[in-house]
Amino acid sequence: MVTGNRWRVVVLVAVVSLIGITLSGGCGSQKASQVNRLPGDKQLVGGGMMIEWKAPEAGTVYLVEKTTGKIVETRSLDEGEKYSWTVTSVVQAEDLQELLGIKFSKARFLLYFEPARTATPTP
Hints:
Elements: H1 2-36, E1 43-47, E2 50-54, E3 59-65, E4 71-77, E5 82-86, H2 90-100, E6 109-115
Antiparallel strand pairs: 1-6, 2-5, 3-4, 3-6
């Protein structure tokens, strides 16, 4: 009777472990794909907890948290316009932590830039 219970426990632990591994693997692939959803011709131009960057041409910046792949902020800039970002209070850090779903201390911020493309007029 004791031997039968051991096998049930072993099988149960194995099944639960496999389900956990499968679910955690699925979440990892979703995180990676979120950054890939950034539009078009994006280029990594900066990152960190304090960012100050000047646009070389008109376009859009995307502030992305690397671990989760979530877009934190999107802003259109004109040529020569500066983009600044920093967290200046505990309240802002707590809000970001809630938004991202990870500890603020674990967050890694990246800044992407997509140049604006002017359409060529058709005759």
